[in-house]
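Section 3.1: Structural characterization of target chains.
Under the original work plan, the team committed to producing a structural model for every single-chain target entering the pipeline before any wet-lab resources were allocated. The record below documents one such target. The sequence was received from the expression subgroup and is listed exactly as submitted; it comprises 581 residues.
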Amino acid sequence: MGVLRWLAAAALCTAIRGQDYGLDRTFQDRTGLSRPPPHFGSIYHVRGVINLPYAEIEEPFEAWYNLTGNKSRIQYYGGQVITYQLAAVKPYGMQYKITPETTEKEVNTRKCFQLPGSKEDMVKAQSVFPSVDGFKFLREEYYRGRYCAVWQNVTRWAQKKNVYTLWVTNSSCGVAPVHYEMRGYNSLLGSHYDKYEISYTDFDNSFPPSIFDLPVNGEPGWAPPILPVGLGLMASPPCSPETKKCGFLPGSAAEHRVLVNPMEDLVGRHQPRAHEVFHHYRRRLGRRYGSAQELEHRQSVFVHNMRFVHSRNRAALSYTLALNHLADRTPQELAALRGRRRSGAPNNGQPFPTELYAGLILPESLDWRMYGAVTPVKDQAVCGSCWSFATTGAMEGALFLKTGVLTPLSQQVLIDCSWGFGNYACDGGEEWRAYEWIKKHGGIASTESYGTYLGQNGLCHYNQSEMLAKITGYVNVTSGNITAVKAAIYKHGPVAVSIDASHKTFSFYSNGIYYEPKCANKPGTLDHAVLAVGYGVLQGETYWLIKNSWSTYWGNDGYILMAMKDNNCGVATEATYPILA
């Protein structure tokens, strides 16, 4: 009886698949002379992992596909983000995206967004496999322990050559996908401009029709809590798309199509929609590049950064990322913005007077911006001068607390004049070395007296008679002591802090409480200097309010909330503040 059931299942597989794809047939088959291209059926379910090496991403997904009904569902990171492509919704189909959202009032509530199709761009069911049109049989080989047939397509346009390779093997239901990869070479750049891979597992041809029901109740303003995901099915009640009340996606129209169906760009062989997003980005920021070669290079960098941003946002983190003004920058260029030199040399700072604040009652939250102690966010430009911005920020706050007047102080004077104390201008420096210069030279120049910030090394030219804010020294806040740093901010104003900002998640931060498990927090591992202007609590999570110097285009108008948990990224490791005379 078991054999009969197996034969019936095999017959059903053959009927569904319409193909038998044995790898052990005749030599003629193995050379591909009579072998048909692989076909995965009109109905399937599969799991897999997307690997984007240039974006440093490995993203799990699960997909359900019904070509007959012209609908599909793809979910990412175990169902944290779910996308639907439903062609039957009139007039041109509809795409839905179910995603968690965290705001000031709610945490990880599911929200629905929709994107209707158009006459020019009708919604279709989205496969997670490439179309095999134009693929040619290449060879047979063992791949990751499985005997596979290898198919390949080579596509060329302009200076680009894309090689698409697909590995398939036998399963109980015929041919099954194993691995797919794309390698892109640009002769203009003389390098590989793109690379991504998709590995497939758990391929089968059956699932319940209810898998395409949206997991919502259809009420306006729907925002139920995230429910458990198990066996690929949502635990919440379904409803039909017709009764669903969904909002529209924020951002540019070009980016909408990528956000609601990211898989299309990975398995399609047409000019990716990501390039449309890049052109919109260029127009919005007024980007102009010096040559066709640089344009190609920047576009390639942007696409990798865009994939990273979108993928991390699908992971439902405690914060979100965005394609900011740094999205066309390479990792090397981003590193140049993190100009804190990690010398490890001891300084002459005073120890934090813990005993003076033993009985201090700290407020739950504090924001020195509300009291007028913080100057507007600036842009350090392509210059590793973050240390000078952190130093002047702490000096400005201390001077405000003493005089009641907020005076913008010059970063440029520190860049130009503090070489003798071990700073290297746009090639990096440390805050304590800047304090030492200020102490010796009787203060620091204001921005008004010294001149505007250049974003480049300049000639030292300060006027001694115009120096402000003499200091007697500076304090090293007890390393790793969260309470001490909070007390320092409360009693002395904004403090200069050093952090590990080497992760892409920091470069493209937009909002929410930033927590990066990969962050370092030890002395000698911190590569960026910023200003802690306050602290607070959001939905039970404590955070530092940090002012960066990468313009208001970065983060939340130039600011970031950084988690206090585990001294993440080292905010409390090397905090300092000046002592005014």
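The radius of gyration is 29 Å.
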